[in-house]
Write a structure and sequence with these properties.
The structure holds 2 protein chains of 2 kinds. By secondary structure, chain A is α/β, with parallel strands linked by helices. Chain A is built from 6 helices and 13 strands. In chain A, a hairpin with a 2-residue loop joins β8 and β9. The chains are: A alpha/beta, B alpha/beta. The complex binds flavin-adenine dinucleotide and adenosine monophosphate.
Chain lengths: ~250, ~300
């Protein structure tokens, strides 16, 4: 079984993001970037499928500007077999990404596509579902446990207030939740080795994938106003009842 | 005629408040609003849906295979209805997140996730970077597909009188087999939509102390329990109750943080709460910077005292 993993390079989750001065977008100049955390879970799961003898080849793909290649190097250092960079604009929305990934699927013919459940920059959480729709494949979203047996997969997925277990036919599109696994740390020698490996390219310029969504403005949310300290439980209860009206 | 279609959320105890709130959001377009009930629903759910003020019609797709609707089946059903609607929406719940992107792609339209504000017909404000920033986004004109953070809108009244229409559903997609669902929370309300959340951190010390200290308080308040990632990682709380950037984002009326330091990743998940209460022994804890009411004290003293005070 061949597994395709889609990964996005995003602003590192420890960075405190700010809007650009003119509010037209997010300030990313000089900001630390990393592989989207959920995509690392997707890569890790693919590696484990291979280690368990279920997957034969793992290909990672990332769409975007040249920076995407850094994310792909990280995937190589983690242990994927091959990586593909699809040059694309920075204004892609999830539908556009799904359309481009569909073309990559057509070229690579994987039996399983693994993505992150959401990119922590746009927080859309749509691409896996959209790709599954465009391919007319089954989907499993926010998966925290994956077992592949023959031509089907049993998945446990995180839902509000609990989990749901599904059994779906392959080929399928699956998106990873944080609970799926703990991604391995990349060791320095592996990173050095990954620097020497080739990064494949796919020409997607013929795919019609104009974004539907346009970001007009980015701003900080209004800050919460400073509160007060209370001195006792009795005072707290009184305030909650008579001032805030929440009890 | 053009209208708005809203997917209802309900369970065996009835229609969820998120549905009532989302109806208000659905009225942003000044178009008729229809509510879609997926799968066999008990009579109470249909009755409650009929009474949603401002709703024109309740569509009931009463097919057995929609009892736990797969995205595949639900998206296909929506496709069969799409011609009559200019907006298809749902609350931003695991169901909405699963179904609507699939439907949007089938219709070849973009989708807006978790709208906080709607400027009809096609402009929205939504959170990005875990709510640390807000983006104003325009979707292309034409069919609008979106999920909304329901708690941003006031629930509609319940004095409506919509008609119920039974509708047919396409056959089940045999490639997807539903096996089971496991609701960890037991009797407590669901974290993402609870009116009150009582949340604890690493300082609780063990799973037993977590439940013994915060459980009675949560029960007394009819609250959901939440936890920090540190508490979850330490095994003090189950991982599905983690609150924050990489857990559940909550926006309850009242959020009570007990022994929570207030790391940025935790705050990202709670800052839309209406009232935040923090109890922490450290007067300089970050959490006090966002708390409406702060109490510098030992949570092991406060929790039982507060529980007792509320019983009166
Ligand atoms: C990528 C990433 C994502 C993350 N996502 C999340 C997330 O979604 N949610 C999340 O919560 N965290 C998240 N974190 C972790 C976050 O950075 C913090 O480590 C975590 O929130 C701290 O949890 P805590 O407040 O329980 O523990 P601590 O920071 O250890 O704080 C314990 C607090 O308890 C107080 N205390 C101790 N004893 C008592 C007592 N007896 N009575 C009263 N107060 C007491 C202390 O003064 C202290 O303030 C994430 C981190 C990363 C790197
Ligand atoms: N530019 C991209 N290149 C490759 N994969 C992507 C890209 N954007 C999104 N994805 C994948 O889609 C997932 C969900 O993204 P989103 O729908 O934007 O939240 C991510 O976790 C990635 O796995």
């Amino acid at each position: 079984m061949k597994v395709l993993v889609a990964l996005k390079r995003v602003v590192d989750y420890n960075v405190r993001v700010r809007p650009k001065a003119d509010g037209s977008g997010v300030e990313t100049a000089g900001v630390k970037m990393s592989v989207n955390p959920f995509d690392e879970n997707a890569i890790e799961e693919a590696l484990r499928l291979k280690e368990a003898g279920k997957a034969t080849e793992i290909v990672a793909v990332s769409l975007g500007n040249a920076g995407a290649q850094e994310g792909l190097r990280h995937a190589l250092a983690m242990g994927v077999d091959r990586v593909i960079h699809g040059e694309a604009g920075d204004d892609l929305d999830s539908l556009a990404v799904a359309k481009l990934l569909k073309a990559v699927v057509a070229a690579e013919q994987p039996q399983l596509v693994l993505l992150g459940k959401q990119a922590i920059d746009d927080d859309a959480g749509q691409t896996a579902q959209m790709l599954a729709a465009l391919l007319d494949w089954p989907q499993a979203v926010a998966v925290s446990k994956l077992t592949v047996e023959g031509n089907a997969a049993t998945v446990v997925r995180e839902i509000d207030g609990g989990t749901e277990t599904l059994n779906i036919d392959l080929p399928a599109v699956i998106s990873a939740d944080l609970r799926l696994n703990d991604p391995r740390f990349v060791k320095l020698p592996n990173l050095m080795m990954a620097k020497k490996k080739p990064i494949g390219a796919i020409d997607l310029s013929a795919v019609a994938a104009a974004p539907s969504l346009k970001t007009l403005k980015v701003a900080e949310p209004p800050p919460r106003k400073a509160g007060v300290k209370v001195n006792s439980v009795a005072e707290l209860v009184d305030k909650l009842k008579n001032e805030a009206g929440v009890l | 005629m053009s209208a708005v279609l809203l997917i209802a959320e309900f369970d065996t105890s009835g229609l969820k408040n998120a549905t009532r709130q989302s109806v208000r959001a659905a009225q942003s377009w000044n178009l008729p609003v229809d509510v879609l009930v997926l799968g066999p629903a008990n009579a109470a759910v249909l009755e409650q849906a009929q009474k949603l003020a401002g709703v024109r019609r309740v569509l009931h797709a009463n097919a057995a295979h929609l009892a736990h609707p797969s995205a595949e089946d639900a998206a296909k059903l929506l496709q069969s209805l799409a011609a009559d609607y200019s907006v298809v929406m749902a609350p931003h719940t695991s169901q909405g997140k699963n179904i609507l992107p699939r439907f949007a792609a089938l219709q070849d339209v973009g989708m807006v996730s978790e709208a906080l504000e709607i400027n009809a017909p096609n402009s929205y404000v939504r959170p990005i970077y875990a709510g640390n920033l807000l983006a104003t986004v325009d979707n292309k004109p034409g069919l609008q597909v979106l999920t909304v953070r329901a708690s941003r809108w006031k629930a509609v009244e319940t004095d409506g009188n919509a008609e119920v229409a039974q509708i047919a559903a396409p056959a089940a997609d045999s490639r997807v087999r539903w096996i089971s669902v496991d609701h960890a929370g037991g009797e407590r309300p669901e974290l993402s939509s609870a009116r009150v959340v009582v949340s604890g951190g690493r300082s609780l010390g063990s799973a037993e102390k977590f439940e013994a200290t915060l459980g009675p308080l949560a029960t007394q308040l009819g609250a959901a329990l939440g936890a920090t990632r540190a508490a979850v990682d330490a095994g003090y709380a189950p991982n599905d109750i983690q609150v924050g950037q990489t857990g559940t984002i909550v926006a309850p009326e009242l959020y009570i943080a007990m022994g929570v330091s207030g790391a940025i990743q935790h705050l990202a998940g709670i800052k839309d709460s209406r009232v935040i209460v923090a109890v922490n022994i450290d007067p300089d804890a970050m959490i006090f910077q966002v708390a409406d009411y702060g109490l510098v004290a030992d949570l092991f003293d406060v929790a039982p005292e507060l529980t007792a005070a509320l019983q009166k």
